[in-house]
Amino acid sequence: MTVGFPNSGAYMEKRFAGPRAVTIQGLNAGTLDVTLNTWGHEVGIKGEKLQVYTEDKLSKVKWTPAKGSGPPLTWYKTYFNAPEGDSPVALRLTTMGKGVAWVNGQSIGRYWVNYLSPLGQPSQSEYHIPRSFLKPGKNLLVLFEETGGNPDGIEVLLVNRDTICSFISEDHPPSVKSWERNGDQIQAAVEDVKTGAHLSCPDGKKIKLVEFASFGDPFGSCGNYVEGKCTSPNSKKVVEENCLGKNSCSIPLERETFGGKSDDRCPDITKVLAVQVRCGRDKSV
């Protein structure tokens, strides 16, 4: 009865959970009030104690086919094949509510998809599955759903790491790697300590394409950047010259780099640099 309730915070002694009153009706002697009887409680979930999320313990309980949205406090299980390749794997739980997930007996943590932000969106709906948890085929996925959800909408997907982004403004401090400790003093580790955008492709790949670049007042998030009204016309050219064909690159956040006063449409604003690039491997001949 108390699964998912807060277990910390102020005024815990004033929070109530579980049944307030219990009566038995339909007796020959009338209604029997057992509210004040001696009650006990059990901590934990029976399925968790039986370890029904593991392959060798599944048979300890009877499973029935799931049909669409289910009630709260329900266990679900299914099997899936591991996606090919070495890209990261994630579990998309958009149609579920709140609970815990296991893959091949290993917990991948709690999920809480039906807790929405002020924008009406969950803070997270995709959950990482370590490749080390997976087999080529017949991977066991078990969920304990606390508030009710529809398992038909669960997806196993690959995470694209070939698109990388940077979003930085003139107000950002330089990278912490620009400094080092010398005894009890902090000193610069590089000759020129300046703020800049730093991009690095994974797995030895190289930057093949600059998909977006704007120095001025861009806004948005990675994959959805939008130019503002003050974008420097040299933005993409500067990023391409610094980054194309490299595994990693840095773009200094300097107005002179992007054309200086001659190309500055909005000299009085704090400048922002937004960059989105795509990584890839060199094609073999």
How would you summarize what this structure contains?
InterPro entries: BetaGal_gal-bd (IPR048913), Galactose-bd-like_sf (IPR008979), Glycoside_Hdrlase_35 (IPR001944), Lectin_gal-bd_dom (IPR000922), Lectin_gal-bd_sf (IPR043159). This protein has helices at residues 46-50, 235-243, and strands at 23-27, 30-33, 74-80, 89-92, 98-103, 106-112, 126-129, 139-145, 155-158, 163-169, 179-182, 185-188, 196-200, 206-216, 248-252, 272-280. Helices cover 5% and strands 33% of the residues.
Secondary-structure class: mainly beta
Task: Work out the helix count.
Answer: 2
Shape-level CATH architecture of the largest domain: Sandwich
Q: What would CATH call the class of the largest domain?
A: Mainly Beta
Main beta-sheet strand count, sense and barrel state? 4 strands, antiparallel
Compressed to H and E, one letter per element, the order equals EEHEEEEEEEEEEEEHEE
Helical amount among residues, as a percent range? Answer: under 10%
Indicate the overall shape: elongated
Count of strand segments:
16
CATH superfamily placement of the largest domain:
Rhamnose-binding lectin domain (RBL)
How large is the radius of gyration? 28 Å
